[in-house]
Task: structure prediction
Amino acid sequence: MPSPITQGTPPYAIEAYGITKSYGRRGKPAVRVLDHLDLRVGHGSVFALLGPNGAGKTTAVRILATLTTADSGTARVAGYDVVADRSAVRRAISLTGQFAAVDETQTGEENLRMMARLTGLSRPAARRRAEELLERFGLTGAARRPARTYSGGMRRRLDLAAGLVGSPEPGVFFLDEPTTGLDPRSRQELWEVVRGLAEHGASVLLTTQYLEEADRLADRIALLDRGRVAAEGSAADLKGRVAGHRLDLVLTSRDAYLRLTGRAVHHSPETLTLGVPTDGSAAHVRALLDEIDPAGTEVDRFTLHSATLDDVFLALTSEVPARV
Ligand SMILES: Nc1ncnc2c1ncn2[C@@H]1O[C@H](COP(=O)(O)OP(=O)(O)OP(=O)(O)O)[C@@H](O)[C@H]1O
Ligand SMILES: [Mg+2]
Result:
């Protein structure tokens, strides 16, 4: 009988400690894909694993979802060990795509009803469950159309709904790049669905290459770089670690530029522009201007920028993220 490691509700929905995984290549040294990865995902939260191509995101998800095993380290999902209690983990999770054996020729409604029947629901209960899920995922209007006519976004929502037909609903969702390839509107709709899952109390671990997605959607973000977590926190925490905001000053002379260059974090000599860190408050910006240019003659113009997650990514990892 699988048993949760802790009594009662486990402290985290997902916890991984020191996960290491290498892939051997014939005749060549093994490549270490995950290098002591540590992760903790709280209940009812959305956690984004953000990283460029090849960072190890899918490998991490596959280990946590019990599809492959780590070389070393331990992980628990919903309180169950991913190796020792593998089947209990599988019952507690939904992995996009994995359970969605969607039949293209059947309608969305038929697919969901059939899957609900397979999980043991009676015919009327299966019909109610299918209706409920179609409604929840904004598919009621398309319920009677064959799945093959669905757009990419609708298809992913149907996949998600299919992962939920069983009762009780899984508490932990793994979504590996759920919005890759979707148009902006479908992406937005999927974001709402994901937020809705968390509002229903589920915990979501999603992977993404999109900084904006992690920023908009996730309560916490881990930047994955070469198989390790390079930085972790809320979007605001991560932005704060770089510099909250940056005040870019366009100076009136080259002398002023050279005199002030030492305190800048961003330099653009061609335009005589220097960027200095600030918290972005009016009080701090005013104080900075007064200090840097007490006579009011050396700063021609200024602009204030919020640090973006791109800034954070570039500052904290070695690779340039893929662009949206
Ligand atoms: N089964 C495997 N055999 C050998 N190498 C693998 C295997 N799976 C993954 N890799 C390698 O491990 C590294 C990480 O792959 P992974 O798929 O986890 O990255 P990812 O962050 O999901 O990337 P992407 O953004 O492209 O999906 C890559 O270099 C990949 O080639
Ligand atoms: Mg991947």
Remarks:
- The chain has eleven helices and 14 strands.
- The first helix runs from residue 57 to 64.
- Residues 23, 33, 51, 53-59, 209 surround adenosine-5'-triphosphate (ligand 1) (CB under 6 Å).
